[in-house]
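Sequence only, no structure available. Ideas?
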Amino acid sequence: MERKRAGKTYNDEFKKTIVDLYHAGNSVKDLSSEYGVSEVTIYKWVKAFTPISSEEGSLTPKELADIQKENLRLKQELDILKKAMVIFAKK
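Reply:
I predicted one. Tokens follow.
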């Protein structure tokens, strides 16, 4: 039997707005009571949508995780192609 999520779903624009309000100086407690989102969820969004700055630019942890996932997929595809090349080179 599948279990359905009981909570609300929010789009990324709403999440980023809440994070921007947090960075503008609003407390998590105030944002939680005003928008009806739990404090834990807001802290999770702040962690996910706060950019990590470097000399080359900035990425959010979510963007970084997406890049790492794509990189792993590409490495796996490359390994498969290398193995196929060895097989076809023998024939």
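Residues 12-90 form a domain with the Arc Repressor Mutant, subunit A fold (CATH 1.10.10).
Hope that gets you unstuck.
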